């Protein structure tokens, strides 16, 4: 079979504002406390899991229109998800003397 239909020209993919801001890495002004894309993904995933298990959103969101992942990302962006960054010594339980 021959397909004589012409292909539609490829359009440039437009990323949402959050994706565009993360294209070159997180910006401290836009993402408070987030120093790497990996940290953002892990933090948003953990918060999304909490929402999935029944935690209440910390922002006003229509749960019928927004998914847990987008709510979690917005909460992280607004600085509403508390977290701490541990050093290797803190993870291992050893204390560093000043």
Key terms for this structure?
4 helices; 0% strand; 98 residues
Number of strands: 0
**Structural class designation:** mainly alpha
Number of discrete helical segments: 4
Q: What overall form do the CA principal axes indicate?
A: globular
Rg of Cα set? 20 Å
Oligomer: single chain
Sequence stretches where pLDDT stays below 50 over 5 or more residues: 11-21
How far do the termini sit from each other? 77 Å
The topology string of helices and strands comes to HHHH
Summarize this structure briefly.
With 98 residues, this protein is mainly alpha-helical. Helix content is 38%, strand content 0%.
Describe the 3D structure.
- 38% of the residues lie in helices and 0% in strands.
- With 98 residues, it is mainly alpha-helical.
- The chain is built from four helices and no strands.
Topology:
Layout: H1 17-22, H2 37-52, H3 68-77, H4 88-92
Helix pairs in contact: 2-3
